[in-house]
Amino acid sequence: xxxVLQAPTISVASSAASTASSAASAAExxxxxxxxASSxxxxASSxxxxAxxSSTATSSYASNASSxxxEASSYASQASSxxxEAxxxASSAASxxxxASSAASxxxxxxxxxSDASTASSAASQASSAASxxxxxxSTASSAASDASNQASIASSADSVASSAASTANSAASAASSAAxxxxSSAASSYSSAASSAASTASSAESTASSAASAAASxxSTASSAASAASSxxSVASSAESTASSAASAAASSAASxHVxxxxxxxxxxxxxxxxxxxxxxxxxxxxxxxxxxxxxxxAGGNGSGTQPGNGGNGGNSANGGGSSSQTGNGGxxxxxxxxxxxxxxxxxxxxxxxxxxxxxxxxEASDQDAPVLGLLMVSLMGLFGxxxxxxxxxxxxxx
Length: 400
What we know:
The chain has 400 residues and is mainly α. The chain has four helices and two strands. This is LPXTG cell wall anchor domain-containing protein.
């Protein structure tokens, strides 16, 4: 009976089983790789999304920081303007105080001017103090604006970093997805790591931008407060200048009341009034007829409270007979006697003035109190003229 060989059959079955096992193992590995690659791709995508979010936030922070810096700069400009105006007010107040002080020095006994000068000086000091504060506030606002600008620059740089990181993360996520589709888990994992790193960079940039924006906002607030304070200081300086100006004006007005303007002088008058200086009399008529001649009027001398005597007017000068003067000046100094004339009313001058020249000077100083004496003198002179006339007529008869 023939023998049956079974060994080859066993060998083939064993080989097939081994191949199937290997295939199954490979399939499992492939499935695992695909799963890992897919997971890596998913992680990369998530990282890219996070990077994008960080980039968007960073951009917002940078924008806010820039706005804060711009506002801070505007406040700094306002503070500087207020400080400049305050300094101008302080300078004007000091000038007013100086004027008031000069007036007080010229009239030290005037308590009103002295009080005005003190008020102006106090106001000038207040304006100076306010201007100093405004300048300090302006400096604070300027520093805050400068720091805000620096913070805006930091935020802007962070925005650039975050944007670049987000771009990197998105590229890595795309590569990871491709690797996952091809089942290359190793490559997918590598790309996923790159995406994660980029996302981390974007997140860090976001944090930096956030801090910078916060600092810029704080600087903006500081600059705003400083500008407000500077404006207030400027108002104080302006008010102080106004006070100093009013005080200086009051001092000047009081000082002006001390001035006594001199009289410019006109012609003397015949009315009786007080005078700071007497007027000079006018000229009487220098010729006359054989009958009583008269001058139209003698100038009125300075009578009354004048500090200088007036020059008396000339009486009428007649060749024969006694002339009469309607008015005779009082208080004038003359060198030759008038030919007759009677004293009239006394005149005085309200201002200095010359009404004419003497054609014949008079001697003595006539006054109402000297009228009787002057009358006697005139009678004597008339007697002499009469005697001379009689003698001349006798001589004429003798010669005939």
